[in-house]
Specification:
The protein is an all-beta fold. Among the domains are: 73 residues; 149 residues, Neuraminidase (6 Propeller). 0% of the residues lie in helices and 40% in strands. It is built from no helices and 73 strands. A hairpin with a 5-residue loop joins strand 3 and strand 4. The chain is elongated, with a radius of gyration of 33 Å. The chain starts with a strand and ends with a strand. The N terminus is likely disordered.
Length: 821
């Protein structure tokens, strides 16, 4: 039985006045792996996994709830808070697992009133509920900054930083189903204010907590409260003199000896905070340790203390240590023995906001900043100070690339592209995706020493991919590299900047000319520091500078775009600056570096100015390009010029108003219909960019697609790709699900949509849909290389047709349909 497969390919006719179809293919970023700036401690739940929250990343930095294994594997985002729709956002605190097995937490912002929420979530990420939206004073709290606890009565308790009767914070209680919310106590200032920390329920079943300010002298307080809110007692007021500590920001700990232990962020001998002890009746207050300012002492603790199995106290300090980036410390309960277990640094995380948890004599914690992505880490360390290790680097993209810039279609039909940043090293990535949007694969993560911030990409006649990075390499001057289409055999062919006179910072793809060598431009470097034209073999040898730009009125300077080979086999390009009017040039040079010639100098007037995207050679042999500025409205132009410099014509002047594009920054592409297509980062219906079409004689200017407002895809910066399926593919630098950029597909309304192929009585039946009265050609292949026409059919009024193939091959067959006219 024959195997049949569909390939829904298209061919654009000479008439594409019908509206185009726009399809987002992919949003960059891995949503299940995001999260940044963990402010809160982890918890170990009953399933043995670690759970926590991040303040930022996902949905415009609204925060996440995540889980992972004890070794850091299996990191998964369970819930992404939204920045709209009344959802909570930006949790600053950790979670609590209820006796019902669900997770409960609070967000500092968001909710129906924008003042924070209490939420519930199942451990598998389902069942998210906003249980309470804080309304603010006088009856309700606002801006909860502390974790919840589940009381012995099964209710949830915590504090809010503001709100209550006096807008100085409150203690609240609510049931786990969201009912029964009660403001148990409102702080008035003299009894405490601005509680930043959560509560504990001590062995006497009373609630104990701290307030960051207020009390008798305004430096903070320790209090206790009955669970019905009826009995409040101020146990201790910190003094403004600071000797006993000031501003406790963390929850208390009830030690195994029945005493209360805690920290203050400031105060003490040098205003770097303290560790203190207090009996539950408010007596016997004692400063166990005064931290000192500066290395190597810990300083400014923000996290709750933990009593280890050895009955010592373990904690983190926000500052201090050898690198002044924070510490993990151990102190005996009498305060006599202080040991710094770990000094944080930028590489392994710094600024721990939260305290520690203990699992089988191993301590786990988080840092808010630092790590590989500078967005925080999760770590573990043994109680004896050994075995420190990072178990997770929090990040912005899930190690996906973001801000896509360039696309090409490979010989295998796949789309290849680069992102300017992101990837595992945050220096950019190389990816592949199928035209339909499936099969997204990261092929390579760029890194500083091997090149970073990639720009252009080509596939050579040997099927190898060649590209440039604008930075990185030994001298941070950029690189030219080769890599196989499967991501293997990454090879540096040349590192720019070893000698700046040889050119630095290439900003576009190389060109493989007819002689098989690679040619390109550098934006800087050269004998005049304003760029070069270079030649290099594909083996990486015989690097030669063909031209040093001079920046004078007789020459251009700073070419951001690469080269194109003309029909005369000479090389053509543009410079952004320079020329007789200093607004850029069009130039010509032969492959041996001779006969360099300025064909046109832009004046930023009606002829355009500052061409940013490169030239293309049209099917008519003319050269076409865009300028970023100039034209009557100073919003850019489309132009054409003959390869001898004659016949320079401005085809279109952008207006920069609503429904018009402005400032095209990328190359044009000639579509299968012979028209020119391009992108502009501004303009369109929303001034967020557009795709336009223009005939090569300057007629028929059309806005093909207008990009939407954020968070949808917007600001296309790169050229379109006219793929072999007849559709146009491109990217936007911003927008999408996570704001990290998108890939999209655009095709005319008459493009056929392949529906199915089936076998009936030995005959293959190819079904597809299209536009009524259009003619479509049906083709078949057994190897995706050679195609034979089965015939042409006119689409009936129903818009769908089934075309028979009475003699399908015995092997696998591929079918596609083209729009003919």
């Amino acid at each position: 039985m024959v195997s049949v497969l569909l390939l829904g390919l298209t061919l654009v006719s000479q008439d594409s006045r019908a509206a185009a179809h726009f399809q987002p293919l992919r949003s960059f970023g891995f949503p299940s792996q995001l999260g940044s700036q963990p402010n809160a401690p982890l918890i170990k739940a009953s399933d043995g996994l670690l759970y926590g929250t991040t303040y930022g990343a996902a949905n415009n930095f609204a925060g996440t709830v995540f889980k992972m294994n004890l070794d850091g594997s299996g990191y998964t985002v369970l819930y992404k808070f939204k920045s709209t729709e009344g959802d909570g956002r930006n949790p600053t605190t950790g979670l609590v697992e209820g006796k019902d097995g669900a997770l409960y937490g609070v967000t500092f912002y968001g909710g129906a009133f924008g003042l924070g929420t209490v939420f519930k979530l199942n451990k598998d990420g389902t069942g998210y509920q906003d249980l309470h939206s804080f309304k603010g004073p006088p009856a309700d709290g606002r801006d909860p900054a502390a974790s919840l606890i589940e009381g012995s009565d099964g209710a949830l308790y915590s504090t809010t930083f503001f709100g209550g009767d006096f807008d100085r914070g409150c203690v609240f209680r609510m049931n786990k189903d969201g009912t029964g919310y009660t403001n148990l106590y409102s702080f008035n200032g003299t009894d405490g204010a601005r509680p930043n920390a959560g509560l504990i329920e001590a062995s006497d079943h009373l609630l104990y907590g701290t307030s960051s300010i207020g009390g008798n002298e305004g430096a903070g307080a320790v209090f206790k409260l009955s669970k019905d809110g009826g009995n409040f007692a101020l146990l201790y007021s910190f003094s403004t003199s600071g000797g006993d500590g000031q501003h406790p920001y963390t929850a208390l700990l009830e030690g195994s000896d029945g005493a209360l232990y805690g920290t203050t962020y400031e105060g003490g001998g040098t205003n770097a905070g303290t560790v203190f002890k207090l009996d539950k009746n408010g007596s016997n207050y004692m400063v166990l340790r005064n931290f000192t300012v500066g290395p190597p002492s810990p300083g400014n603790p923000l996290g709750q203390l933990l009593e280890g199995t050895d009955h010592a106290l373990y904690g983190t300090s926000f500052r201090g240590g050898s690198n002044n980036a924070g510490t993990v410390f151990r102190i005996t309960r009498d305060g006599l023995d202080l040991n710094i277990m770990h000094d944080f640094n930028q590489g392994d995380g710094y600024w721990p906001y939260a305290g520690l948890i203990e699992v089988s004599n191993t301590l786990y914690g988080t840092t808010r900043e630092g790590g590989a992505d500078r967005m925080g880490t999760a770590f573990r360390i043994n109680e004896d100070g050994s075995g420190y290790g990072l178990i997770h680097h929090f990040n912005f993209s899930g190690y996906d690339g973001y801000y896509p810039l360039a696309l090409l279609q490979g010989s295998d039909e796949g789309l290849y592209g680069v992102t300017q940043t992101g990837g595992e090293n945050r220096d950019g990535s190389l990816f592949k995706i199928n035209p339909g949007g499936s099969g997204y694969t990261l092929l390579h993560d760029f890194s500083f020493w091997a090149g970073r911030v990639p720009f252009g990409l080509i596939q050579g006649r040997d099927d190898v991919l060649y590209g440039t990075t604008s930075q990185g390499g030994t001298n941070d001057g950029g690189t030219l590299y080769a890599i196989n289409a499967d991501g293997s055999a990454y090879t540096l062919l040349h590192m720019f900047g070893t000698n700046s006179i040889q050119g630095m910072n290439p900003c576009d793809a190389p060109l493989e000319a007819g002689d098989g060598a690679l040619y390109g431009t550098t934006q800087s470097g050269g004998s005049n520091s304003v760029g070069t034209i270079f030649r290099l073999t594909k083996q990486g040898d015989n690097y030669t500078v063909l031209h040093h730009f001079t920046s004078g009125t007789g020459d251009g300077s700073e070419p951001y775009a690469g080269l194109v080979e003309g029909s005369d086999l000479a090389l053509y390009g543009v410079t952004y600056f320079g020329g007789v009017y200093r607004y850029g040039t069009v130039f010509r040079i032969t492959t041996n570096g001779g006969a360099y010639q300025i064909l046109h100098g832009f004046g930023s007037g009606s002829d355009g100015g500052s061409p940013f995207g490169g030239l293309i050679k049209g099917s008519d042999g003319m050269l076409y390009g865009t300028t970023f500025f100039g034209g009557s409205h100073q919003c850019g132009t489309v132009f054409k010029i003959a390869n001898n410099g004659g016949a320079y014509v401005v085809l279109h002047e952008f207006q920069g108003t609503t429904a018009y594009s402005a400032n095209p920054a990328a190359r044009l592409v000639e579509g299968p219909d012979g028209a020119l297509y391009g992108t502009a980062r501004h303009g369109g219906d929303n001034n967020t960019g557009m795709i336009f079409k223009l005939s090569k004689d300057g007629s028929g200017y059309t806005q093909v697609h207008s990009f939407a407002l954020p968070p949808a895809a917007y600001e296309p910066d790169s050229a379109l790709v006219a793929a072999r399926d007849g559709a146009l593919y491109g990217s936007t630098s911003y927008g999408g699900d996570l704001g990290l950029g998108t890939l999209f597909r655009l095709w005319p309304a008459a493009t056929p949509d392949m529906l199915s192929v089936d076998i009936f009585n030995g005959m293959a039946r190819v079904s597809f849909a299209g536009e009524a009265n259009r003619q479509y050609q049906v083709l078949r292949s057994t190897n995706l290389a050679q195609w034979e026409s089965l015939g042409i059919v006119t689409m009936p009024a129903s818009g769908a047709v089934t075309y028979p193939d009475p003699n399908p091959p015995a092997s696998a067959a591929y079918y596609r349909a083209y729009w003919v006219r």
